[in-house]
Amino acid sequence: MNKFSRIIIKRSQLNRLNEWALECAPMEAPALLVGTVEIKKDETSVAIVSNVYPMPNIEQSTVRFQVDPEEYYKIYLSAEKDGKQIVGIFHSHPMEPKPSDIDLTYMKLHGNIWVILSTTQKNDTLKAYQYLNDQLNKIKIEILE
């Protein structure tokens, strides 16, 4: 499993995710982040987002989300066909942008980066995390203009 040091995403992609989160509020708004992974000399990995896919929250919940497994699989196959992969899971929180207990349960299942956006806080509204080797790690977010 890759240990990520950062995730790179375009400002326009973040704007789209923010719009999606506000559109879905107060429900959590999930999205899949598709792109490539570069392995650096220090053995850490960098996720480079090329596409964002806002997904309906079929749970329709303010405290959890679920995406349609068939839609997830379609995006997975399309990414794989293009030489890409799902590098991250995005979702919004109505409170602070840190993983909930429910999030942590699912983060332990795979090594993807989880990007969480708070729809109510003014400062530090976006955070990224990876759960790896029984540890929650913050991941740097690099925003390209």
Number of DSSP-assigned strands: 7
In CATH terms, what is the architecture? 3-Layer(aba) Sandwich
Q: What is the CATH homology-level superfamily? A: Cytidine Deaminase, domain 2
Apparent shape: globular
Distance between the termini: 29 Å
Query: How many domains in all?
Result: 1
Q: Largest sheet, if any?
A: 7 strands, mixed, barrel
Radius of gyration: 14 Å
Give the SSE order as H and E letters: EHEEHEHEEE
The CATH topology is what? Cytidine Deaminase, domain 2
Total DSSP helices: 3
Percent of sequence in beta strands: 35-45%
Sheet/helix structural class: alpha/beta
Mean pLDDT: 93
Output the strand order for the largest sheet.
1-3-2-4-5-6-7
| Low-confidence spans | none
The helical percent reads 10-25%
Question: What key phrases describe this protein's structure?
Answer:
about 140 residues; Cytidine Deaminase, domain 2; 7 strands; 3 helices; alpha/beta; 7-stranded mixed β-barrel
